[in-house]
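Chain A, query sequence.
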Amino acid sequence: MRHLYLAATGQNRGKTTAALGFLDGFLSRGLSTGFMKPVGQRTVIEDGVPADEDAVLMKSVFDLPDGLSLMSPVHIPRGFTKAYIAGEVVEDLGAKVRAAYERVTDGRQIVLVEGTGHAGVGAVIGLSNATVAAMLGTPAIIVSEGGVGRPIDEIVLNVALFAAHGVQVAGAIVNKVQIDAQPDIARTLERGLARHGVPLLGVLPYRPILSNPTLGMILEGVHGEPIHDGPDLDRVIDNVAVGAMEPGHMLQRIGPGTLVIVPGDREDAILTLTDAHRADDGRGVALGLVLTGGYRPSPAVLAEIRRADLFAALVPEDTYSVASEVHDLLVKTHPADLEKIETIKALVAEHLDIDRILEVAAEPARRG
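Chain A, predicted structure.
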C-alpha cells in the first residue's frame, strides 16, 4: 500500500482540484483507492453524519466504500478551538485519526490523505498538517497557486515546517497558472524550486470555471432573497462590478459574464442594464444583479428585470459589505457541479503525470 499527504500553502489554492484529479487517475488505473481528510474545518451533515465537505465530495463523486466517519474523523465546528484550549475536549484526537487511518488503508493499494490549509493549520488542537503527516508516515505534496516568487516562497516556508516534523516533501504543484501568457513559467518554477530541493510535479492552468463562483453560489453566499433566477444558476461569473456611477459610464465598464452589485434604489442604473441586456439579446451586457441596502425596486422595475431574464437577488447589507462578501467568497466544488468536476478530471489528466505521482507515493514504514 502506498500513501500521499496532499497539503497546500493556504486556503483556496487548489487542493480539492488536485485531490479530485489524483483520485480519478488512481481509480482509472484500476487501483483500489482510499481517501480521508483527517481534520476538517468545513463540516456538513450528510445522512445524519457530520463530515468535512471534501470527504462528502470524494465519496459522492467516486462512490468510495468507506463511511464518512472514517473518511472525516475529526472536524472543528464553531467554538471547538476555544473548548479545546480550555481543556473541555478530553477525547484523544490523534488516536481517533490513527484508528480511522488504519481502517481506510486496510486492503487499499493507495490512499490519499488531504490536509487542511497550510502546514501549520490545526496546530492549535495538536493536529497540524505537519503533525498528522508525521504521525501517519506519509510523504507530502504541496499545492500553491500562480506566480513565481510567491509560490516558491510559500512552498519553501511550508517545506520547512514539514521537515521540522520529519516529513518528506515529495514535490509541489502550482495551480492557476497563466500558461498562455507565460509559456516558460513551468521551467522557471522548476529551476526556482530545485534550488531548495523541491521537485516540481507539474502546473495546472488557470480556468475561470474552477476559480469563479456560479450565480447559485453567489445567491447562497450572500444569503440573498431571489428576485429572478435568470436562465441558469449554474452559470459561472467572469467579473464583478459595482454600479455606483452614472448609468452611461457604468455600461462602458460592464461586459458579458459580469455580476453587477448595485443599490436597490438605483432604478436608473437597473433599468439601463435591463434595457441594454434585452437590446443585445443578453449577449453583451451583464449576467446578473445583486440589489443592496434592502431597497426593493418598484413593481415596474422588477417586471423589467424578469422581462430581461436577468438573475437578481436582494440583500439587506450595503454595497461595500456585499462586494467584500462576494470577493471573499470561498469557491468550493460540490457533488452537483458535474461540468466543473469533469473539467477538473480532464485538466489534471492532461497537465499532471499521475504515474509520476504514484512513483513518489511511499510505502508506510513498518510499525514495530
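The longest strand covers residues 169-177. The mean pLDDT is 90.
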